[in-house]
Amino acid sequence: MATQPASAIRVSSELTELGQLDPAEVLRKLETTPAGISGAEAVRRLGVYGSNEVAAQRPPGWPRRLLRTCVNPLVILLAALATLSLLSGDRQAASVMTLMILLGVTLRFVQESRAGAAAERLKAMIRVTATVLRDGIAAEVPLRDLVPGDIVQLSAGDMIPADIRLIEAKDLFINQASLTGESLPVEKTHLLETPAGAALELPTLCFLGTSVESGTATAVVVTTGAKTYFGRMARSITQQPAPTAFDRGVSQFTWLMIGLMSVMVPLVFVINGLTKHDWREAFFFALAVAVGLTPEMLPMIVSVCLSKGAMAMSRKAVIVKRLNAIQNFGAMDVLCTDKTGTLTMDQVILERYCDVAGTPNDAVLQLAVLISAFQTGLKNVLDRAILDHHEPRQAISTAGYRKLDEIPFDFTRKLMSVVVAMPDGTTRLVSKGAPEEIFKRCGFFDSEGTTYPIEPAFLEDLREEYLALSIDGFRVLAVAYRTVAPKAAYGKDDETNLVLAGYVAFLDPPKDSCAAAISALEGSGVHVKILTGDSDLVTRKICSQVGVATDHMLLGADVERLSDAELAQVAEVTTVFARVSPAHKQRIITALQATGHVVGFLGDGINDAPALRTADVGISVDTAVDVAKASADIILLQKSLLVLHDGVLEGRKVFSNILKYVRMGASSNFGNMFSVLGASAWLPFVPMAPIQVLTNNLLYDFSQVPIPTDNVDSEQITAPRPWDIGQIRRFILLIGPISSIFDYTTFLVMFFLFHAATPARASLFQTGWFVESLMTQTLIIHVIRTNKIPFLQSRPSWPLIATTVGIMAVGLWLPISPFARALGFVHLPGLYWPILVLTLAAYMGLTQGVKAWMLRRAWI
């Protein structure tokens, strides 16, 4: 393998330093010349630095991805129990659990496999050529063959082929929206200036993934491939993402159940073995208890809930790419979003045209239109905004005007001029540019059609309106003119003694629906934070218009200085982050996650891909670049926060139904097994035969299949719904044992009233407990599924009602069915049934009371 020469520098770590050096010094450090390197040297360096390709590493093959999907606590647990069930001859239980494993693993594997295409899309974006000087001769070279030290030539429309340092530049404007989110092109120059902070802000540097809006330049390649800003983002989206809040919640719940099983199952085995002296029967009974405690329907319930939620969300213009993201969507309590295109229309418009006093003035607009219409070359977004500006009361046009000459824009002057023959026969030079540069060339100002000389005392007053517009977030250009004598050609020397006419101000305006959407999100417990690469002044203006507080604003340079712990603390109270890079966005999201927040990120540019992958739920739009869509979990068909808000509420409904199963299944199973422990120690026989335990569990699970169709109370979607394992644990420990109370009353009734105290009467005891257990845990679904007091105020879905009635009917029928003997059931005494009714009523009443007490203490 080739090694890097000692004289070469680690360009990726010294990019900012090179941006501040003189061009000649940069060439010396990179061991190149203005004529470029030789072809032989290029080949050698290609071996040292590698191809100029991003995301060149191959993604893991499908066996490795499948293995990674299977390494999940619940999958391993179900697989172990299915194997034991099969070895013990219970093929039915083994088949059900195997089906659950296949369903869960397949869905996750398919969804995660789609992310692997993101890197390929990145590479496809840059399969173009660049104009490179080698041996002093310009030639088109494939981007992948560029190396540090190559000299490249750029012109309007070109893509920046690598991270480069400008050597010469003329009228160069770069579109950096893909990296910074800034909607307006930025000026770049080879001239040394005081560094603005981060590398992206240096005017002497350009980056892979951006493009030339206008102008020409010659530059030297500094970094290529994976070491570029673009390349580092590509690596971040191909890496395996960290577990999301949903993944962590499922894992924590699974380990909670495994912990309960690790205590309960061995106790059941040992107690039954010691008291019944039949260790084989004790083993099978303990295995049945393990199956009873296992939430084996969780993968199916989760998958169906998520799939149903995905379909409902698609009807609301929200497309779900990764099903697990739906719960994260509902649990999200912080939404980080870019400004451009989300809060704004993503379209720069001419917002104001005024005279020096700030009064709207059509004459100023007429002058601006003349310059934009008559200039040659590629018109930038500001020129297009001027020409596209129309109001019914105006009749601004170029009819009757004739262009005589032009003084093009350059970076040093920061203005341009056209010379126009006016309809009245006079010749006028009209200039447009940076206000400070226009001021230097003005000797007069125009006020209501009258020209006044600019006295030194007036200069600050004239600047006042310009500064007010700038502070208010506008991009401002000054417009000036003067009457000139006809001649053959005009030059920069003619741009003197101008008359300051006024200003034109531009803005990417906020969407009309944005303020209402942000208010709705905040009302639903989702705090909106703005992460943008745009300037702080523009960002402050837009945020104030849409209702986002700007009292706490942090700049990218500030983020750079903070440690992770400090950033986590500051991010809690900061609502707006401006001038941030893609790496900053990632750090901010990670800092918020570290403090317990479930974070969503909405973005649509190349620069947003790393943040989309880091967030608990990445959100993009169907008009986004391919890389952003590939990195996102959820796609909005409309780039609207109102659509996003609808999706959030749907996500909360989905998780509410998942949580219903978790609460019902876990508390009921725990209560039953808690009863098993006591009964096993007390009775001379097993309280329920293994086949009866499995049948009870299967019927109960079937009763919960319609949970994904269940209605959700409006109160349950007013706030984020994250996983709260502490809450679930409290629910299990407090609600679960309630069923045991009535299990024990049933034991006493069967033992003393119906004399089922001997092994010869074991079938009667087991039948009585089977029916009571199935009835109570099936009916109690309707108490647990809602937080309303009383529960009858909440209407369940018809499928859930139907299965509840159906399963209870099956439970009543089984003891007298043809299957009774095979299941070990016998007929129950007539007195049993009124006692059962009283038991059900008391159970539901006590559970309702305990749940109301827990609600008052905010424990659920």
Question: Can you describe this structure?
Answer:
This protein has 860 residues and is an alpha/beta fold. A hairpin with a 2-residue loop joins strand 14 and strand 15. Helix 25 packs parallel to helix 27 and helix 27 runs antiparallel to helix 28. The longest helix is centred in the C-terminal third of the chain and has 42 residues.
The major sheet is characterized as: 8 strands, mixed
Question: Hey, roughly how much beta strand do the residues contain?
Answer: 15-25%
Mass-distribution shape? elongated
Instruction: For the record, give the distance between the C-alpha atoms at the N and C termini, rounded to a whole number.
Output: 61 Å
Percent helix, as a range, is 40-55%
Structural class: alpha/beta
Q: How are the strands ordered across the major sheet?
A: 8-23-22-21-9-18-20-19
Mean pLDDT comes to 81
Number of strands: 23
Number of helices, where a helix is a run of at least 4 consecutive DSSP H or I residues: 32
Q: Stretches where pLDDT falls below 50 for ≥5 residues?
A: 1-13, 115-127
What is the radius of gyration computed over CA atoms, rounded to a whole number of angstroms?
Answer: 36 Å
